[in-house]
Amino acid sequence: MDIGIEEVVQLTDPFDVVVIGAGPGGYAAALYGAAAGLNIALVEKATVGGTCLNRGCIPAKELLEAAAVHRAVASAAEFGIVTSAPSVDAARLFARKTEVVDKLVGGVSGLLKNRKVTVLEGTARLGPDHVVAVTGGDGSTTDVVGTNVILAAGSVPRTIPGFEIDGGVVLTSDDVFELDHLPDRVVIIGGGVIGCEFASMLCDLGADVTLLEALPGLLLAADPDVVRPLQRSLAKRGVKISTGVRVNGHTPGTTGTTVHVEGGDDIETDMVIVATGRRPMSDDLVDASTGVVVDGHGFVEVDDHCRTAADGVYAVGDVIATPGLAHIGFAEAMLVVKQILGERAVPIDYSGVPWCVYTQPEVAWAGLTEQAAKDAGYDVVVSKHPWGGTSRALIIGETEGTVKVVAQKRPDGSPGRILGVHLSGPWVTEQLGAGYFSVNWEATVDDVASLIQPHPTLSENFGETVLALTGRGLHT
């Protein structure tokens, strides 16, 4: 365990907080608590930043941005810019990904050091009386004690029967970021956020992509009206999409493998990416005597304040059954630290959290889908507006997608509170803020329609869509 003499001395006294896991939930708790003056120990068995910085959000979006650059160069002639067809330098592609990741990991590490967080490298296990046993790579164990303990151990990729992960032919989403080359042919199993992002990125970089999903559609958590443009775009760019299908293992060949689809044709491919989601990394995380309860799916059970059944023990991030998003981990970490500090802590309304998918076109939403609003008993009114009439979208040459606003219908038939905002199209992940605020501040259609949108921008499409609900839209 790589700790200095001064740090060893510190370990003899209880910390205000011991955090297990240095992913978004864990490092956010450490930084937020340290900024408030708490003495904090942070235990991490791998690299600071967790899945998000090292094997998830950040490297995925860096590769997706590379795909966007490739797409832009390939279509440059439309703008009167003549260039040769772009090719991919895979070594540089993945090297830049590593550079971005390393810079961000270094930034978080620097923040932890500057705020005097004690970082311990090793595998942690919570025992009775808030004692956390930290086992280093050399097998030695050091006990640290926290007046409070936050479990933020994160998650690992889910796997499926018949597809043993080898890191070469059959990969998890984590393994993709360790590649030094791109496949010519790839089968992606799973049509959720991870699978769709990989499909979009790899097809733009020249791979022959097949996307298989066992459920009836892609991105089932999103409103279908913003998923359809994505599915059309993927198909137009050559992605072969099959939903409602199951796979029955694969047969390795000399260079790749053959995926067996139940009731369908076999698919020969160079690589299989299993993108069927992630599961909590709670194995051997807590001793049963602590009173912390882990359910049958591996999630640590918590209440709406992220408190476990054990006094002074909290859990945040992917290890609990809330949306597996980095920014949710941040929010949960701050919620917990506020309680430790004795401050007012308001539970998170998970029905209104922001979701972003960085495909081409992008997909983003906050609040209830149209169907979810109806299922909740709301009488709703809906406005949808495409991008074809938005000047900035035409200027940049990206008009796929739609903006959809779901509002509550008042007894007199007029639109009232905005219940959900759903976007697909150019840079909608950067535009979701206005929709998120509208939903979570319980704004009405009239509230938002009265605000001025800058022109020409992409963001004015949201304003136009809301304005149309008043019956006096300008361009609808």
Main features:
476 residues; alpha/beta; FAD/NAD(P)-binding domain; Enolase-like, domain 1; 7-stranded mixed beta sheet; 14 helices
Question: How would you explain this protein's 3D organization?
Answer:
- The protein is α/β, with parallel strands linked by helices and 476 residues long.
- The chain has three domains: 5-56 and 92-157 and 279-351, 3-Layer(bba) Sandwich (FAD/NAD(P)-binding domain), CATH 3.50.50.60; 170-276, FAD/NAD(P)-binding domain (3-Layer(bba) Sandwich), CATH 3.50.50.60; 361-469, FAD/NAD-linked reductase, C-terminal dimerisation domain (Enolase-like, domain 1), CATH 3.30.390.
- It is 32% helix and 24% strand.
- It has helices spanning 5-10, 24-35, 50-55, 57-74, 90-114, 173-176, 193-204, 224-236, 326-340, 370-375, 391-396, 428-440, 445-449, 460-469; strands spanning 15-20, 40-44, 118-121, 123-126, 131-135, 141-151, 155-157, 170-172, 185-189, 208-213, 240-243, 247-252, 257-261, 267-269, 271-274, 278-280, 313-315, 355-357, 362-367, 380-386, 402-409, 415-425.
- The strands form five sheets. Strands 1, 2, 3, 4, 5, 6 and 17 form a seven-stranded mixed β-sheet that branches. The chain has a five-stranded parallel β-sheet with strand order 8-15-9-10-11. Strands 18-19-22-21-20 form a five-stranded antiparallel β-sheet.
- Strand 18 and strand 19 form a beta hairpin.
- Helix 4 packs parallel to helix 7.
- The longest helix has 25 residues, at 90-114.
- It is globular and about 65 Å long.
